[in-house]
Amino acid sequence: MSVTIKDVAKAAGVSTATVSRVLNNSKLISPQTAEKVRNAMRELGYFPNNIARSFAYQNTCIIALVVDIEEPTAFNNPYFYQIQYGIEKYICPKGYYLMIANENTLNHSGTGFSQLVFEKRVDGLILPVSLLNKHLVKKMEDQNFPFVIIGEPENGYDTNWVDVNNKMAGEISTTHLIENQFQRIAFVSGSQKDLFNKRRLEGYLTALAKHGLSPDPDLIKEGAFSKEDGYALMSEFMGRQNPPDAVVFTDNLVAFGALSAAKAYGRRIPDEIGIVSFDNFPVAELSEPPITTVDIDLINLGIQAASMLLQEIQLPSTTKQQSLLSVRLIKRGTSERARREQPAPWERS
Amino acid sequence: MSVTIKDVAKAAGVSTATVSRVLNNSKLISPQTAEKVRNAMRELGYFPNNIARSFAYQNTCIIALVVDIEEPTAFNNPYFYQIQYGIEKYICPKGYYLMIANENTLNHSGTGFSQLVFEKRVDGLILPVSLLNKHLVKKMEDQNFPFVIIGEPENGYDTNWVDVNNKMAGEISTTHLIENQFQRIAFVSGSQKDLFNKRRLEGYLTALAKHGLSPDPDLIKEGAFSKEDGYALMSEFMGRQNPPDAVVFTDNLVAFGALSAAKAYGRRIPDEIGIVSFDNFPVAELSEPPITTVDIDLINLGIQAASMLLQEIQLPSTTKQQSLLSVRLIKRGTSERARREQPAPWERS
DNA sequence: CAAGGTAATGTAACCGGTTGCATAAAAAGT
DNA sequence: ACTTTTTATGCAACCGGTTACATTACCTTG
Fold first, then answer.
1. Which residues in chain A are closer than 8 Å to B81, comparing Cβ atoms?
2. pLDDT tens across A90-120, in order?
3. Cα distance between residue B101 and residue B114, in whole Å
4. Distance (Å, rounded) from C-alpha B244 to C-alpha B239?
5. Alpha-helical segments (H) within B92-194
6. How many whole angstroms separate alpha carbon A289 and alpha carbon A272?
7. Closest Cα to residue B185, out of B198, B210, B206, B204?
8. Burial track B139-164 (b if 16+ CB lie within 10 A, e otherwise)
9. A185-204, pLDDT tens digit by residue?
């Protein structure tokens, strides 16, 4: 059907072994022979059949990113896809390809993504911590199958993983508010069952402690996910006797809803109420005023995960690696009080 | 190393051919033998080696989505990724896998994505029209390599392609404004070098013509891409003697910038100026007022492309298919004048 | 009961590369 | 000039499935 190594060998008057060696730039080949073979390849329009190559080497040079995205909207998808881009960017120049495996669509056909492992379709796996389970980890470790987890796992897993430094994120956002003379800072997160939310809360508490502020349980809320949750929560805060003067939200949309509520109630921002959010999502930059957020470099997260995985593939080791990535704060209008609005030291209560 | 078909054959006391037949559910196998073989597989923990299978069949059951995304921001990535999701959703239940090939990262290693074709790494390709060129098409057609283009190509290409109905998008958005009693409707697009922008303009002109309105060249602008472009353009419009009373923007961010400008100049929206945009992007829903947009179902676009490609892979044909997808308008606050605000027929000029 | 047909299984070639080992030719050492 | 080493190439097995063809056993049917 198409041109094979045999055709090239015949045309060049050498053995298939020699052609193969030319393909792989073996230095055992004399320049003249190499030249001859290369000419034959060019004339015949030869391309090595990658499937055969994979078969001989027993690897595919493909790694899979497993995701568990339900029907994506423009809202919920940027996260994985930036990670995806980072992975791609790292592995492609190294001759690897990226396969996407959505656990939700894959599951329809039975075994889910573990099929990829057992059938040797891919050389390694990057998967979110949400898909981790003991059973699977054991299987993969029994096979010495390389994999990297995105997101810090709960205690009891000794695996390769990468995550952003969520504690640091909680800490710098809170510290920033403290430095802008906010006093009663609330903290609103998603579910505290998720380790990353626990870490963010830890950071918040650490920042308070470092500045001699004691946490108020009434100011710590969990379970906010939507614009509407944010609106409701902020309304509730503002109806209180002793409301917070600033809020850290771990979700951008929640912060957006809260901002609307604060504006609807006529609060001046950031003078009367400060807001810091997480994940530098488009709306954060476009809202009025633009929202201060912790910027999480997900492209870099992908790069780190990919780098760790390729290392594991190329020289497997028994010691596992972990990597925590720094985050940075993007200061915008919802938190930075103008200098003149800060009380001078002697004016403070 | 791992369990192969030979091990299973030996354990079950049959030949490898028999095991292979059991694997493929051949009906030539007696139930007792099948049972025996399946037991052996279970006991040994056998999984077929997919690389070997691919080698025998000379296919990979992988299709590639080629993209040409530069460093993605949360702004620019939703488009491809919704298409990606659609493809995935369609192909996974059918036993195919999705590979992502970013032309930009791939190119670092030389030949770019055409490598995928010649090395037989994938069974088919879905690629954006922006990456199309005659040279490539000829090569792929010479090899009978299945591929589908996303986006209508310029004249002169007879290939499989899918696209959203851009003309319809231009038409329904304009018609909607006309039906809301807007009279001087401007049209602002990206570059008219892009066919999809030409089609959108066609739709706009068609809608005007159908309602007996004649186009005014001063109201047709091209080359707007950013929030800032939108702001500048809207400012310019509002400074005119005879400004438009509504604008169709083919880009959401441009519309967002324009909206800010209109608000900054104190115009009431939609009473004094109407705005319709394209692509139902997050900011469209969250802005004040929320922006009316044409909703483009990119997930469905992916599904259609994937469906066309698998069909081509499974039974290659020489006749090419094209598919144009409908769009729908999401009516929001920037265009819908309240009934009472519309002039009654006898009040019109 | 022999001939013909069918169902179940085995044998071995094949898919297209890679690579250990053998070998031949050239270069170096004594 | 003769052995030893180095360099270049070929032979053939191998990776793990699939499948055309051969073979055997059993089942019909005249």
1. 72, 77, 81
2. 999 898 999 999 887 765 555 677 888 888 8
3. 10
4. 10
5. 103-106, 114-118, 134-142, 166-179
6. 13
7. B204
8. ebeeeebbbbbbbbbeeeeebbbbbb
9. 999 999 999 999 999 999 99
- At residue B73, φ and ψ (nearest 5 deg) are -110, 175
Question: Which B residues 83-112 touch A at CB under 8 Å?
Answer: 84-85, 88-89, 92-93, 95, 97-102, 105-106, 108-109
Q: Are strands B246-249 and B274-278 parallel, antiparallel or unpaired?
A: parallel
**Which among A54, A98, A108 is the nearest to B93, CB-wise?**
A108
In angstroms, the CA B137 to CA A320 distance is: 46
Tell me how far apart the alpha carbons of residues B237 and B226 are, in angstroms, rounded to a whole number.
17
- The residue among B247, B105, B113 whose CA lies nearest residue B173 is B247
Give the integer Cα–Cα distance in Å for B44 and B202: 65
C-beta of residue B124 within 8 angstroms of C-beta of residue B146: yes
Measured CA distances, A36 to A2, A12, B119, B242 (Å): 20, 6, 22, 74
Specify which residues A249 forms β-bridges with: A188
User: How far is residue B201's CA from residue B194's CA, in Å, rounded to a whole number?
Assistant: 11
Spatial CB neighbours of B57, under 8 Å, sequence gap ≥ 6:
none
Q: Are A85 and B108 inside 8 Å of each other by CB? A: no
> Do B187 and B221 contact (CB within 8 A), yes or no?
yes
Q: What is the pLDDT of residues A56-67, one digit of tens each?
A: 999 999 999 998
**Can you list the alpha helix ranges (DSSP code H) found in A244-297?**
252-264, 282-286
Q: What is the pLDDT of residues A223-233, one digit of tens each?
A: 999 999 999 99
In terms of phi and psi (left: phi > 0; alpha: psi -120 to 50; beta: otherwise), the region of B251 is beta
Among the partner residues B75, B92, B102, nearest to A88 by beta-carbon distance: B102
Nucleotides of D under 7 A from a protein CB: 7-12, 14-20
Indicate the SS3 state at residue A73.
coil
At B311, which amino acid appears?
Q
Contact A88 B97 (CB under 8 A): no
Separation between the CA of A21 and the C1’ of D11 (whole angstroms): 15
Write down all domains in chain B, each with its CATH number in brackets: 5-57 (1.10.260.40), 62-164+299-325 (3.40.50.2300), 166-296+331-347 (3.40.50.2300)
* Lookup result for tokens 């940027």: A78
Q: Which residues in range 83-112 of chain A are in contact with strand C, contact meaning CB within 7 A of any of its atoms? A: none
Q: Compare all CA atoms of chain A with the CA of B3 and give the residue at the minimum distance.
A: A118
Q: Is B16 exposed, middle or buried (0-12, 13-18, 19+ CB in 10 A)?
A: middle
Contact present, B62 and B122 (Cβ < 8 Å): yes
Beta strands A147-150; A124-128: pairing state: parallel
Read off the pLDDT of each residue in B229-248 and give the average, rounded to a whole number.
96
* Measured distance CA(B29)–CA(B11) in Å, rounded: 17
C-alpha A87/C-alpha A63 separation (Å) is 10
Instruction: Summarize chain B as % helix, strand, coil (round to 5).
Output: 45, 15, 40
Short-list A185, A213, A204, CA closest to A274 = A185
| Rounded-to-10 torsion of CA B227, B232, B236, B239 | 100
